[in-house]
Amino acid sequence: MNLSLKRFSFQAMGSYCEIQIYNESRVNAKRIIRQLAAEVRRLEQKYSRYQPNSLVAEINYSAGNKLGIKIDTETKALFDHALSCFEQSKGMFDITAGVLNRIWDFQSARVPAQVEIDQLLPMIGFNKLNWRKSRLMMPANMEIDFGGIVKEYAADAAAKLARRLGVEHGLVNLGGDFAVIGSQPENRPWTVGVANPKDPDNLMAKIDLVDGGLASSGDYERSFVHENKRYSHILNPKTGWPCTGLRATSVAANLCTVAGSMATIAMLMDEESGLIWLRDCGLPVVTMASDGSIEGVRLKKDQPQGAI
Amino acid sequence: MTTKPSPSLIALSTTALALPGITTADAPPAQSNVSYKFSNYLEDDLSRSEVPFGDLERYDIDVHQFQLIAPIDRSFSLQVDVNYESLTGASPWFTSQGVNGAPIVNLSGASGIRDARTEISIGSSYYLSNGSLSGNIGYSEEDDYRAKYLGLSGERHFNNDMTTVSLGLSYSSDDIFPTDAKVFNRVISENKHGTSAVISVSQIITQVSSYQIALSLTEQSGFLSDPYKLKDIRPNNRTQIAITNSYRHFFISANAAWHVNYRYYHDDFGISSHTFDMRWYQNLRPLIQLVPSVRYYSQSAADFFVNVDNFLKPPSVYQSSDHRLSAFGAFSGGLSFVANLGSWTATLTAERYVSNNSYSAYEVTQPSTALVSYNRISLGFDYTF
After folding, report:
1. Residue-number span of the structural domain to which A11 is assigned
2. What residues of B are in contact with residue A153 (Cβ under 8 Å)?
3. Interface pTM, i.e. ipTM
């Protein structure tokens, strides 16, 4: 059997995406990759906050509607996972915090006034969403954003679909969120590089993956410095101000979705709590602290992965 | 270094694993599949000693089967089946006693029968996180027969998907309106209904083996006789029960799967039967599969089976000389050859079926003539897109 590597890159979810699979036949590989990319695009179209006809746009449009909106099984499962993130982070990971982007503009590097923030805070709170079975009644002016979950989920879903289509060795990379299907042939791990937030063209670490996923959260692009103070795009839903904890976090886990949620929650905490949270989880982790120091644990595949 | 997962990690993994794109729960097929199969079923001719006059040729049936399975969205799939059968030949009309006392067969129509049957069925399945619900409706029509049916079924997985319980209900209503009814004094138009329930439990035993048991109960009522036979009077109700056991085992070292099934059947016509069959799915690298199969079947006779029609008995007395109601046994053997060519799969199957009174596991008091033996050849193509 002669397995060869086929790579395909495309643009989706606002990121550079790449799929690599090993297959005997190039024709087959191409056909499979097309289907995986279609799955990623399906999720993008359904959950994009920017596309006016996406389901998320429809949900946000329903805010204040007494009848609410019927939520399908897949989206309900995403809400359930979002609730889990909300609970485990004690309210810091909140998919209703997206309203803050109305006043925090990271391109124009403007710091909003406290009074602007105070106006928005009542519109935030995952626990304010009302459910009647699969019907969601969202209070007026609130909005949701699956941005912190969907890219990771799409990577896992594409990897799962690849397995279903018979792929034994493959990698899905959606803008730095990775899900792998098995190892590379001959049990070689996939070595994934983690970009350095201070110098995105260079790596701050390499992590070996043999299955599962890797996700990163950090100030890679969207942050600014104003009057010698760094403003991260990661916003605290309770205060409305940027978080001041870790600079970047990468986590490897059984699923890219889990890795992403773990990393995001760590970023929302203060630096010390974030480091403890990551140390306790038992997963392979790389962090960059606010002073720029890099720390990595359990990065090689022969080290315990704390697999669940 | 902590290696035990934290409670937060467990909580997040639990909800992530429930996401439809990730979960191993039921999902509609990811791709669409179109398949076409052509089969030819050719019964052996009867011998001249069994049929003194006319044609010896029996049924020759060509079957064209078309199927489309397509996902509609994340939770729905659609299935469409269209079958077309064309049939030529003759079927036993009545049996009588020959000069030496042995039963002889009188085949219907000197020029034989020519008929075509078209069937269409549409079904849909709805996939839930731990099971699925399906429904289908079907319609079939031929010159002298029209069938309508509908079915509902559901299945649910338990025990970490190791156990699956499914339940199915179906109803059918058939109209029979024999051709040339007036000429041959046949019934003009009759109807029959059937209701059926099936419950099955399948259990994954190990990584490479599974077992399934299914119980089905069918109740038929209405005109159950054969309108083309000169003297065929059967009860207006029939209750059928069947228990099927299936075992599957995959042999990793041989890269082959072994399927073995046993079925016991009983009905209140007095027929009991045993079916035992085995298949061996041998994977041959890279993309070729050979599937040899063997099957043994035997049934007892219906209480009212006669091998020579008795035209003197009053019409209130049940009797039938239909060979399918006699005691007999049958062996069949087949070989399939499956080739995977990218999105295409081609399957070629040949089968030989031989039935005989002497193969019966049950006592044969009235041996039937006109038992069928046949060859079946089929060629099918599947295309996935």
Report:
1. 4-42+149-297
2. 16, 19, 21-22
3. 0.87
